[in-house]
Amino acid sequence: MKPVLLIDFGSTYTKITAVDVEEEKLLGTASSFTTIFTDINEGLENAVKLLEQKTGKLEFAERYACSSAAGGLKMISSGLVPELTAEAAKMASLGAGAKVMKVYSFKLTEDDADEIRAAKPDIMLLVGGTDGGNSECIIHNAGVIAGIEDDFPVIVAGNRNAARECEKILSPTHKTYICENVMPKFDQINIEPTQKQIRDIFLERIVTAKGLSKATDLISGIVNPTPAAVMKGIRLLAEGTAGEEGIGELLAVDVGGATTDIYTICDGRPTKGNTVFKGLPEPYAKRTVEGDIGMRYSIKGIVEAAGISKIAELSGIPVGRCEEMVEHLSTHTDEVPCEDDGEWARLDYALASMAIDTAVERHAGHISEAYTLMGLSFIQNGKDLSNIHRIVVTGGSLIHTKKTDEIAAHALFTAASPYSLRPVRADILVDRNYIIAAMGLLSEHYPKAALHIMKKELEDMGTVISPDLGAQKEESKFVPDMNEGSCHGF
Amino acid sequence: MKKKTIVIGVIGNDVHAVGNKIMYRAFTDAGFNVINLGVTVTQEEFISAAIESNADAILVSSLYGQGELDCRGMREKCEEAGIPNILLYVGGNIVIGKQDFEKVEQRYHDMGFDRAFPPGTDPQVDIDCLHKDLKMDE
Q1: pTM for the model
Q2: Which class is B5-133 in CATH?
Q3: B48 closest CB neighbour out of A81, A371, A490
Q4: How confident is the model at residue A488 (pLDDT cuts 50, 70, 90)?
Q5: In this predicted structure, what is the pLDDT of residue A428?
Q6: What is residue A227's three-state secondary structure?
Q7: Taking Cα atoms as reference points, which of A460, A449, A383, A459 lies closest to residue A422?
Q8: Mean pLDDT over all residues of chain A?
């Protein structure tokens, strides 16, 4: 037996997972309150004690950790055009596991500078212009940022012809890092170098600043931001290792108390004929975070997006009572339903369902119809997820209920939004023990064991099919038929 | 001399891709840095691409007859987006039916396009005009 300990220092809980890498099996999980203000190791030791009550004494050969404690990795970015470089900057930050507080476009103003000063980001990402393209905006913005008296580091990943000048402007007041352009050419995104830089800065500066350095003495490997570890785990599950295949393209959903995270591992290119792809190319591994969609702190965002009548309909609770209950939960954020089909459980069922519905709709691409001289064509923006056949779900509201599959089914295509390219039929896999982030950490050194444990531990809830599948075919005329994809000679 | 950057594409719900590819080839061979947005391009996409790439000109193609509707207000949007002086060309079957091209050209001038080209124009004509308008040979 070779036990390895995987630690997730969360903002509220320190969650630990113990695995045996020789037998490739899960030994146990436990959690305890995070103790960021005293000594972070206290919370960790408490969790280990709880774990060892279940497993017996364990001699850990190695320890790896990720962290989202003390607010996670807070980033602000500024780009040029909102749909282009500013969007690429957002994709880069989210994919690296950051919490994106704000994305600015065009020239920064003095008011923006005040806002950034007040927000105290951990890292600022400055982009804008293709290589050889616009340099005026990024140079102006470097000047504004240089004037903000705070010591956050700045990553410059815009027009390469302006990089040195930005560095000259910024370096007297801020530690400055130069990266390759996030959008070197018009139809190309290049976010990996920036993501690597974000991770390096996280290790170099943020870990110390967030009181995690005491823990690093104990830890064998580097500390990752938690969402980056989750992304790694999900990607491994989808792609597999050199010697073994993964389970294929997938969508993953994590419904939390404050945010809902969606991950997709797929190329998302058009799956049907007669479709033209538009907009920025999509990253193969993509993460989006809905900051207004969460089960407690962001409960009102769900109600705003879905409408209280929809929540009432799904839960079977009258509208007035729903409103009261939502109001109560928004201030009592630590309350969870204790019985399985009581009023509170039914409300949580409705909220979680609409959280998934809203977040997946925002993550997925959409099509619009265009009537051309050649007949009906389609224009696609974002990723086409209709051929994704696996959905991995996690989050308290999904793992502590028997209705996981019914809630998860709200990720699927609906007749209410026929132009959203959501999956139509998928197997639901539940991460009941919160192991994906841990497996992402483990995969850095033991990818095979991590893959095997995930395949074993994720619970298969069976297949869900969109109830509106027939409607999709009739109403949107968007029927999969590759024979119609010929180019008609134009 | 620094390469001049131009943005090309087919505007509106127009999927004529062949001419667009010929234009891309011709302008690239003539030494331009060409950003090709392909087919079914909106005004906003032309303008956004021109801003990020600091382009010198936008060349709009239209083959399906609806160009006059699709191009309306484009100069005003450029002004709004901070590139008021960018060179704007349009070419192709840019109106419905057979019309006197002088009048067509005048209508496009009124819309703020610097030049309009009739169907069947040799790409070399556009290249010569770009050289002249961008003062490339001075």
Answers
A1: 0.84
A2: alpha beta
A3: A81
A4: very low
A5: 96
A6: helix
A7: A383
A8: 89
